[in-house]
Write a structure and sequence with these properties.
Elements lengths: L14 E5 L18 H7 L3 E4 L26 H20 L4 E6 L1 H12 L7 E7 L12 H4 L6 H10 L6 H14 L3 H15 L8 H8 L8 H13 L8 H9 L15 E6 L8 H10 L3 E6 L9 H4 L3 H13 L1
Parallel strand pairs: 1-2, 1-3, 3-4, 4-5, 5-6
Helix pairs in contact: 2-3, 5-9, 6-8, 7-8
Length: 336
């Protein structure tokens, strides 16, 4: 997009991918208003902005062979997004724009799929100039409830349950559509807004000061979005094993698929793309400890920045009233 605030609209327009996390979509980057949302701010500074949508969300539910109601359609996690989808997106953007490099901003799972792509397709690193990892969901062993509670169940439980009940989706499709349709109305009142906020905060970290009633209503109209149960199950496996690795199919399944009893590990060290890590003190999903671990293991992590506001939480990277000052200004300064 071109912005009427762009300083030099005819100047160099580097492509930048902005990638959301689990149960979100590209819509979530646009909910805080044009003066604060990241895509508009990037366009204002002259970037050619591309908003990614993960496999399975409302914008990405077509397949050449499978119906969206087939469990085979939903048999994927962020592994497939990193190995297959993101490389195709990068190549498509560079081919379309005629540029040799682009930059990448990923929130949560957006960081997960990037690091997998850079590990499994090392040649892609030459095509990415810089990367910003906001609360990168790579290590999640310090996550708080409810993820911690869910790890008490055997590996594969959640994926099997969603296959049985929802056809492989995290949420039943019609229920998800109903929530997005009526969510803005249900979350518009004084009391109901607080309840809607509490549901989100219980998963990602509490921060009432940064989420207005208007924003809560907008969030309810777009989130949660569709995702596979296997994706969540893959994260739960990491929370148990504290290891950045491929999906664990059990001893027999691993041997049949990988030729080993343990899943192959991914490597952060091989990533040579210049990277900025942003983290929040009040993040209940990706803790400061886990973010620092990512920073230490990355092959070319330039810097790590803690959001100044201590109450800032995981989803505040998309929804907070002060997200421009707290996070996005750091992103843009790093990319320029």
């Amino acid at each position: 997009p071109y912005s009427n605030k762009t300083v030099d609209p005819k100047g160099h327009r580097e492509p930048v991918i902005v990638q959301h996390g689990l149960v979100c979509s590209s819509d979530d980057w646009l909910l805080v208003g044009e003066d604060s949302n990241l895509p508009f701010l990037l366009a204002d500074r002259g970037f050619d902005v591309w908003l990614g949508n993960c496999r399975g969300n409302g914008y990405s539910q077509r397949h050449v062979s499978y119906s969206v109601n087939s469990t085979k359609f939903w048999d994927f996690s962020f592994h497939e997004m990193g190995v297959n989808d993101l490389p195709a997106v990068i190549d498509f953007i560079l081919e379309t724009t005629g540029m040799k490099q682009l930059s990448y901003i990923g929130h949560s799972m957006g960081g997960t799929m990037f690091f997998i792509a850079m590990d499994r397709h090392k040649h892609l690193q030459e095509k990415v100039r810089k990367m910003v990892a906001m609360a990168p969901a790579v290590y999640v062993s310090h996550a708080k409830t409810p993820m911690k509670v869910m790890t008490l169940f055997p590996s594969g439980t959640y994926a099997a349950l969603t296959d049985l009940v929802h056809g492989g989706r995290i949420l039943y499709g019609p229920l998800n559509e109903w929530l997005n349709s009526f969510g803005p109305l249900l979350c518009s009142g004084e009391i109901s807004t607080c309840l809607c906020q509490d549901i989100l905060f219980f998963i990602t970290g509490f921060d009432y000061s940064q989420t207005s009633h208007r924003t809560s209503s907008s969030i309810a109209g777009h989130t949660p979005n569709d995702a596979s149960g296997k994706t969540l199950d893959h994260y739960l496996q990491w929370a148990r094993s504290d290891t950045f690795r491929e999906y664990d199919y059990g001893l027999r399944g691993n041997w049949e698929r990988y030729g080993a009893f343990e899943p192959p590990k991914y490597s952060l060290e091989v990533n040579k793309v210049e990277t900025l890590v942003l983290y929040a003190q009040n993040d209940w999903l990706v803790s400061p400890e886990d973010s620092y671990r990512v920073f230490r293991e990355l092959g070319n992590a330039t810097s790590i920045i803690k959001v100044a506001l201590d109450a800032f939480s995981h989803m505040d990277f998309q929804y907070a009233a002060d997200v421009k000052k707290e996070a996005y200004d750091h992103c843009i300064d790093f990319l320029l």
